[in-house]
Structure formats: C-alpha cells, structure tokens
Amino acid sequence: MSGRGLSSSRLPWAVGLLVLVGLCPHPCLPSTTQQVIPIAAEAKSVATPPTDSQQPASPVKRTTKVPILVYHHVSQTISEGSPGLRRLTVTAEVFAQQMQYLQDNGYHVITFSDVADFFENGKELPALPIIISFDDGWATQFEYALPSLEKYHYTATFFVVTDYIGRPGFISWPQLQTLLTDGMKIGSHSRSHPRLSKITDSAKLWDQIYDSKTILETQLETPVEEFAYPYGSYNAKAAELVKLAGYRAGRGCCSGIAHTSRDVFTLKAIMAPNDLEKFIEYIGGDRVRTARTEHSSILPQAGSQ
Ligand SMILES: [Zn+2]
Fold first, then answer.
1. Containing structural domain, residue 210
2. Are 265 and 249 in contact (CB under 8 A)?
C-alpha cells in the first residue's frame, strides 16, 4: 500500500526543495519549511496520516528517558577479526542474557513510532521503556539475534543500507520480509552508508535519505518511518531532510538516554556492549559510551558495487 505515488515526477520538486533548503542557512529553516510544507505533506500522505506539520511547532515540550540500544554484529561465539569488529560484536549468548534481563526487570520494549507518538501527541509511554535496534543489516543479526527476539516477543528495528541488501554477509530481501512477518520494523540506514554531515550536495543527501526510504517501501510494501544516521553523523540540514522525507523519527548514536521534543529526528542511543554488567549500567543511564561507531573498515566501500 505504501510507496505508491512516490516515484513518478518526484525528482523535479525534490531538487527544487533541496535547493531551497541548501540555500538557506540554519536560522531561516523554519520559514523555508513553511514554504515547502505542501510538498513535504504530499510525500508523507502516502505512508502516514497527516500530522501537525502545517501548523506551528507544538508549544508542548516533552521529555523522556528511553534507552535506545544499537547492535551491529551478533556472533555465535566470541568474535574474531579486528578490534574494531570485535567492539561492534555481541555474542548470541550475551544478547540472550540481555533480553532476559529486560524481561526480568520490568522493561517494556517499544518502537520509534511509540516515541514519535509521545512527542507528537503525548501518548503515554509504559514504565521502563526501551528500544532495540540493529544497524547495517548484517546477516548475523538475522541468524543469532532473531531467535531471542522471538522468544521474548520483542520488536526491534533493523536499520538497513539499501545498497547492501542481499550482498554476501548481509540480510536479503526475503529475510527482511521474514523480519516483518515476525513483527520487526525495518528502518533506513541510507543507501550507501556515507557520513551525511560531509555531504554538501543536496541532491545526494536527498538520495541517501529519501530514495532509500522509497526503495524499501516499494520492495517491502510497508511504511518505513525511522532513519538512523550512518556513524551517528548528522547536521541540521540532514536532520531537516529526514523530517521532510516523511520519517517520523531519526536516530543518532551513543550519547545518552534522555530525549526532548526537539530530539525526535536526532534521538540519542547506546552502543550495546558485549557484557551484561555494562549493559545494565548503560540502560540505567549511569554510564554511557560516547564513542562513535567506527566500522568503515568492515563495511563494503561506498560505490564499490
Ligand atoms: Zn552503520
């Protein structure tokens, strides 16, 4: 159902929109947003109901604490390879322990849509909310994390890089369909995993943010409403385009568990450690890793296809 009507003739207005945004320095973004709202609303109307985007920003400022876990590799045993790869790996056993801990301690696994509903409409969140997410679309996530997610009936969001889908070592389109059937969410992690804050060409930025969304929606026939910035790297322009592209939430990385209404397109997150004790510290907000993901060396090079 979703995705229809998005492809035809979208490029001219999209480029025009980006020129407007690109020409406008940050302080004038609100007025620019007002100029382009009818177009943005048209794009959003396919996958999501109308929001309050045609009105001034809600004066209601909300805050909440929601740990957003970020996983990369999930291995069968202790990982091999470079230190960088090991740092991004959680074993299936530790992952299962962490999921068990969430259940034993009263955590409620929610989704990015729940957070968006909270910020947009004040929809109440459960006690001890937490979000589980996976980046890059590694096949190990499907193989070793999905069984635990199914065991506890937890919904996780898998942020995939559209250019990588189906490559060796990465989740395939049929596996993405299986994830959806199992109640998981699919989000976009861009088309080719660049640092968006380094991209100055608005059309290229739009391609990474918007076209990845339409590719996923067309193939999977489901709305794609969450975007995760590669490397957690974003700037005001990228965050604005994530909003204009019709996403409901954007996720950065690695800087905490407290969020405000202004953060819905730049939500903070936690790199999940391969250690239960640290995991407990992090989701409790006692200590949060600030290290960025450094996995450029283990991902296919951009444009190498
Ligand atoms: Zn990534």
1. 62-294
2. yes
How many helices (H) and strands (E) in the chain? 12, 12
Residues 259-284: tens digit of each pLDDT: 999 999 999 999 999 999 999 999 99
Ligand 1 centroid to Cα of residue 272, in Å, is 14
**Is 17 contained in some domain?**
no
* Residue 83 CA to ligand 1 centre (angstroms): 17
- Number of domains the chain is built from: 1
Residue 249 lies in a domain: yes
The long-range contacts involving 287-294, CB below 8 angstroms and separated by at least 24 positions, are: 288/254, 288/255, 288/256, 288/257, 289/254, 290/254, 290/255, 291/254, 292/231, 292/232, 292/233, 292/253, 292/254, 293/70, 293/72, 293/88, 293/135, 293/231, 293/232, 293/253, 293/254, 294/84, 294/87, 294/231
CA of 295 to the centre of ligand 1 (A): 7
Q: Which residues pair with 251 in a beta bridge?
A: 228, 267
Question: From ligand 1's centre to the CA of 231, what distance in Å?
Answer: 5
Distance from residue 10's CA to the centre of ligand 1 (Å): 27
Q: Quick check: is 183 in a domain?
A: yes
**pLDDT per residue over 238-255, tens digit each?**
999 999 999 999 999 887
**CA–CA distance, 68 with 91 (Å, rounded to integer):** 19
How many angstroms does the Cα of residue 55 sit away from the middle of ligand 1?
34
8 Å CB contact between 297 and 82: yes
- pTM of the complete model: 0.78
Give the CATH number of the domain where residue 167 resides.
3.20.20.370
